[in-house]
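User: Quick sanity check before I run a bigger batch. Here is a single chain. Can you write out its predicted 3D structure?
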Amino acid sequence: MDDDTNNSSAPVRTIGQRIQYLRERRGMTREVLAGLVGKSESWLKAVERGRRQQNPRLPILLQLAEALRVRDLSELTGDQSMPVRMFTGLSTAKCVWL
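Assistant: Done. Predicted structure follows.
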C-alpha cells in the first residue's frame, strides 16, 4: 500500500487492529466493509476487537484486502516472512507469492 499504515504513529498489532485501522483510513463504516465481504457488522466488530477465537481464514482475508485496497497481505496479518502481493483482474483478487 502506498500510504503510511506501518509508521510508528499508528501502532497496530493484531489482524483485527490492522483491519480497523485500514477501514478507518479508507473512511469506511463497519457496515460497509462487512457488506463487501459478505459478513455481519457484529462479526467484523468481533474481529476488530479480538473477540473471535480464530483470525479470519484466507478467503475472507483476500476479500478484506481487496475491499481495503491492500496490496500486500502482510499489511493485514503482520507476518513479513512471506510477502504476498495482491492484484485484481477480472474482478477477482489474485495472490503472487514472492
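Confidence is low (pLDDT under 50) at residues 1-8.

User: Great, the batch can go ahead then.
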